[in-house]
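Check out one such.
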Amino acid sequence: MQTDIKNYVDTHMEELYALLKALCLIPAPSHHEERRAAFCKRWFDENCGEGAYIDAAKNVVLPYGVTDEKKALSVLCAHTDTVFPDTEPMPYEERDGKIFCPGVGDDTASLAVMMLCAKYIFENKVRTENGILFVANSCEEGLGNLKGTRQLMKDYEGRVARFVSFDGSSFDRLVDVSVGSHRYLVTARTEGGHSFGRFGNRNAIAVIAEMIGEIYAIEVPKKEGTKTTYNVGTVEGGTSVNTIAQEAKMLCEYRSDNLDCLAYMKKRYEEIFAKERKDATVEIALVGDRPCAANVDPAALAALRAICADATVEVLGGEAPKGVSGSTDSNIPHSLGIPAITMAVWLGGGAHTREEWVDKSSLTPGLEIGLRTALKLL
């Protein structure tokens, strides 16, 4: 089997590079992945048979060995969306052994690897006890709010036994602890008016600034082995330099990899939001909700961690990847008590910037790691 894997990798690298480029040139902002989803389905149809389908959340789902009787499915996924709002193809360039394109790594390279893994499984008719779902899922990034994985877990409720997501840019780490978060759009409104003629009227920007000050005065819980944070990411509002702002908004969040700490931060934020603001109205909208893990069997998680770590060590040697916290598609299965791991199948940098790049040579071991992981899941 090892020779077969290496032969497959060696003979399919050019196909992988071509697939990665084709995917990169299809814009896929969160909630608008339809073009990339259609491409993925068409590619699956041409390379793996016609079992793939696009679900209500724009996930492309390709079942293998899945029947109604099989109740302990594995999931192997990579997300189709990127953080960039562009609706036209973004610049793609190869130089100095690197591939440059916004979103090339996060998560397009992972997606291409996952798709080539599916092709290997279908071509070789690999035997499986319980079946696997290959998923090109939507809405992992930012305010996508993990919509794709939520839909997948809903559609296969009670049937998914373990979940692996290809995401990230470091072979020496596995995300095995989920960082939960709540994200809010806060809008303040006041009477406003002319900055000289109506001086003294409440300024909506000042109201938002007051709330920001209160958020940044929070003392985060310090529970051993956990991390909790807060942030205000954007602030906007006002009309002109000589206008008392009638409306201002901010996007803010808190995060924690511990349920109790997440609950504490929720309480503190709600206290700030509930505080009466004289001569102002404040509206709160929850725009993001990423849960922490809940009741995941430690032994089952350790077994899945070993599968992913062993696949990496078999290819690269050295020490096993270390477990770290992260906010990924694994959050949803973790919150349902399902063992989940997020792992890397490429190396690179500049994620979430327009200078993002992938080390082209890293895709060779990355594809082999992906294949070994898929086979172990089967």
User: Anything to note?
Assistant: The first strand starts at residue 53 and ends at 54.
